[in-house]
Amino acid sequence: MGVDTLSRRGLLAGLAAGAAGLAIGFRLDGADAQPAGPAAPAMLRANPQLDSWVRITPDGRIVVLTGRVELGQGILTAMRQIAAEELDVAPERLALISGDTAETANEGVTAGSQSVRFGGEALAVACADARATLVGVAAQAWGVDRAAISVRDGVIQGAGGRSMTYAEAASRVSLVRPVDTSARRKPPAAATLVGTSYPRTDIPAKVFGQQVFIHDLRPEGMLFGAVARPPGYAARLVSLDMVWAKSLPGVIEVVRDGSFLGVIARREEQANEAARMIAASAEWREGAPLFGGKSVFEYLRTAPSETRTIHSTEGGGPGARRHTAEYRRGFQAHASIGASCALARWEDGRLTVWSHSQGPFPLRGDLARGLRMQQAAIRVIHVQGSGCYGHNGADDVALDAALLARAVPGRTVRVHWTHEEEMTWAPWGSAMVVRLEAGMAGDGALTSWAHDVWSFPHSTRPASTDGCNLRAAWYLENPVPMGRITDGALPNGAAARNAVPIYAVPGQKVTTHFHTDMPVRTSALRTLGGYFNAVAAEMFMDECAAIAGVDPVAYRLRHLRDPRLVAVLRRAVEVSGWQPRPVTPGRGRAQGTELIGTGVGLSKYKNSDAHVAVVARVAVDVGTGAVRVQRLWAATEAGRAINPDGIANQIEGGMVQATSWTLMEEGRWDHRRITSEDYHAYPIIDFGHVPPIESVLIDRPDLPSIGVGEGSQAPTGAAIANAILDATGRHVPEIPFTPERVLAALRG
Amino acid sequence: MLRISVNGRSSEVDVDPATPLVYVLRNDLALNGPKLGCARSQCGACTVLVDGRAVRSCQMRAGEAEGREVTTLEGLGTPARPHPLQAAFIAEQAAQCGYCTNGMIMQAAQLLQDKREGLTEADVREALDHNLCRCGTQPRVVRAVLRAARQQGA
Ligand code: FES
Ligand code: FES
Predict the structure, then answer these.
(1) Do A214 and A6 form a contact (C-beta atoms < 8 A)?
(2) Looking at CB atoms within 10 Å, which of A234, A309, A562, A682 has the fewest?
(3) The domain that contains B108 carries what CATH number?
(4) Which of A206, A335, A389 sits opposite B101 (nearest CB)?
């Protein structure tokens, strides 16, 4: 059986069994540069053909297509709801195709919590257009007004029991034409599916062990590939005994191209073992030590960077007093439970790649440049991977698989990185330094606000128009270097994401110090710079409130003009039973050997998306400095909710992840490479540390849906940080708040 | 040749007995339930039941499974006859990407065997403390296991 048949069937089976549900997504930075606006036309301008969104086949199947991909966020369930709503078809009857360069619209990267807001809107307009067109066919055939016609589960119904299926109507009109963007969506009040917690369609397949993941694809005759990694990022291959390498158990081919070295074997464990032995026995030339031996924060502050003031407002003044503070965060990892995986097969010079990339189309472009071939000869098909929180190894492994499979034309090669490879070789979330400075009037009101951020890149995804951002390409005999690196522009920003204050303060200034040289390769990790910029700003707000001697919530309300932020803040305060009190520096409230504190964090993701307020209660052990989050409360508003339970899942999941980031996660490295290569070296939160969470949603069906998938990270981190400040009265400036750091602050 | 019994079916596999069981289950027997995660006994994604006990299949050699009964997620229940845990994970929508789900369910299956009565949230958290989820679904997983326990008790 051919791979196509098998994988298509697998894919469709996975989709029929389900394909998922809610409203997040991350998006690429090029797209981040576009201001949020009337989005559907933009997405439809790029992909105007109606049949790249919806198709009615002659046998009556209704096929909905989306360029967005499932990352475990439930987006395909949300898309199914949206399409079914507009088409008036039972959602389970829709066949869904997502992220296939031969089929779907090119929607770039599924990222930036953009999918519902942009892709969903476009899909809705296309489906509304299709429905209106088909209803029009029936109206004309029956000589009646379209107002007298209704649709039930894909059957058009008129007076006197007349009916026509969508398939019949579609046979009398062409749906192969551009979308009529003036098509009107169903009014929210008439919706029966959108706004409900329709169950995720992919979950049953996942609990019964059906084929869902890319790791589960097993085309006939498949071989296994693995890459032999250099000892460090800058190391280069000097020599290898190829004859010996080829004689290792199970090995079929050894591929060497410059310093790219890999094996193809009959069995997965043989490929991994051979790659390990080859890497260990090859002779490598070491490169220069990472960060020139400095600490990463010293490097960020002192190595040459591009400094730009990217935002400023008039007014303001020095005020009666000033407050300045600096905050730091180390490298943080995706640390997905399943490592990256891809399948590749070459046939007659054409390449097919199965990938869990967030952007099948941009990946295809970079594969073409990396392999020096036409992108028309490459097809990339999305298949789900393990949960993905940004730009991990998904794209890189596709080039690894393609380079290896080239040695065995006609055979499919699967490469499934080891967890250590993922941790060591995939991009990390950037280490960052933020410095804040504010002026305050005698009454505590903020009179100016300056936010400086030092950072490595937050997007080095495929999708550049030059170069190749897939790691293996840099190690080839004829290397294809990385494309030009730029920082995402405001309003959404990348390094400066959420650096523009959400508070009404005069005299604002945001300055970036952007490093394009990356001793440790960095790229998009959920929220990009948004989490840390907002955490730093919210910590700073509490310090200002402490100086002013005012309750942190009251202090925020005093500086807020955005009614949506006010609403979530008030709601979180209400559900958490917040007790107003000024922050009193230097004095915690003791309970046995613990200090108990409560803190609040507030954010509007990207200054344009989800409004989320979080309250945290923590206990700090005075003997060890260990912080335990006792409880978290959240209030969220993201416009019209497509799937409330899906939003809850994303918001709560983000709170758990942010608790982990904030308290425990930090990458370490030696002179060659990242050494945090497993869950011992880079622990993530376990069940024992996950706090009880109470989260409420404010639904606003009157407002457009906005991105929610990355909404809760920043306010959660901020609330925990501020709860520590409340408990200890001490400024702990570096994330993660490890016991050692908290203890040092307590003793300092 | 190894002869191993998985989900009540006996199979012969031509493989080195030292091969970690997870590769044999996934690649030779084409089972999707057990997932390959860390391969270092740190995440739990690969968990299966061996003679009813939860085992990390990345750590057990295939040869050690000879003469014992291996149960994977596929063998626990089916869409037509779901195990209470499978039904509860659906009811609670206790997954995001679902890569960790196998481990959560298989580890919890042992817990429900061991402790049928009076299962508390603390019991569930303790039993699953070495199963990682990066998507942050732990609160839902706890709810799902408690729901399954109630179902099973009923
Ligand atoms: S894969 Fe076996 S415990 Fe992680
Ligand atoms: S649901 Fe993604 S790792 Fe648990």
Answers:
(1) no
(2) A309
(3) 1.10.150.120
(4) A206
